[in-house]
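Appendix B: complex inputs.
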Amino acid sequence: MTYSPITPQSQPSPSATQAQIQTNFAQYALKFLVNHSALNTKNQGDHEKVILENQIGDPGVINDQVTLFCKDAGSNFGGTQPQLFAQIRKFLPTPGDGHDAPNVGMQLTESIVNTVGPNQFQSFLPGNYMLYFGTVTATGTVTLVPAPTVIHVALAIPNNLTSPGTPIPFSASTNITSNSTFNIISNSTGVFTITWIAIATA
Amino acid sequence: MSGPNLNEYNKVIPRPNDFLADSQKDFLVNFQQLYNAFSRNHIALDAASSSGNHTKIELLQQPQGPETSVGEISLYSKKLVQVNQTTTQLYHRYQGGASAGTEVQLTNYQLYSPGALEEGLVSFFTFLPGGLILYFGIINFSKAPANSLYLQPYVCTNIMAYNFCVKGTTLFADPTVVFINTERPPIITRFQAQPAFNIPVLPAFPDVEYYFIVLGNTT
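Resulting structure:
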């Protein structure tokens, strides 16, 4: 027997309705327990976890609030997967920002991070962006793994971790060559470490 | 019997001497209100599957962050008042014990894609926890108005770090830049390249594109 909001009816006798009333109370407690601390416990009403069911679109925000929700989002490496979004109330344009941006949901998560390295790491940024970073020795091609949709920026910063105290005698540039690769060009003549950072759309 | 409003949840029914016929409407209203309220953020109570899970989490703006106990963290929304925005943003509070835990702002501003804003400038932005904003893109100081990298949206009040890197296969000097905070104080509106960044034999503002990242805050 499931929860029924149209109980009790007027015609059946109390004995006939009792079971449904009890079911309603029991079902409410049971469903409430799925994501919340149970009724009649110390922390009743608190959340213990939040399982978000995938939504088709943005839920919309009218009040002063933030709405968190889950929606499919695409990436080059993970296909289409549910991700966490936040939607705030529309407040643009303003005198300081004339962009009439709608309050579309802002993607907060991606499906993968790499904090192990050893020479390439990645995390994610709000807005369906990936942040890749790492080091290379001197020049060469950096291949981002997993491959994003498009690289927006790739910066190479000459460091001198291998020869402390020695001035850095070279400069570096970058040349994005595909959705997942960029070259680092420098005029270094020795073995130097170059730190790089790239931001891409997942 | 019923409370003052027959369509609102009534937690004091049935009364001791009520017959079921007397309380029927009260029960109906209560069960319907429980159902409706629960359904706002959750899979409905009578759904065939996943009942009790969330469809969304609507966090109504709080006047201040809730205190947290040991073993708890909280997510909530709060009004953010800054120079160029008054919005409701998402916050997080660590476990606190007797006093409230440390509060961290998780979201900042409304994300959108500025794209190509000015000639010589392609810009994106996102945010990081703590009220930080991260601008990134491509700038050609020789083509951009006032030889400047405009930090749009104009919400950055403090530059924490920035870096420029030559885009392309030809090596070139990195630019010398200053930031301008006098146009819409205290907002930092732009980085302006200085002629001094160039070596003398080349044009004052060479036709060179740079990738840039700028990290600042908006408080």
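The longest strand of chain A covers residues 65-75.
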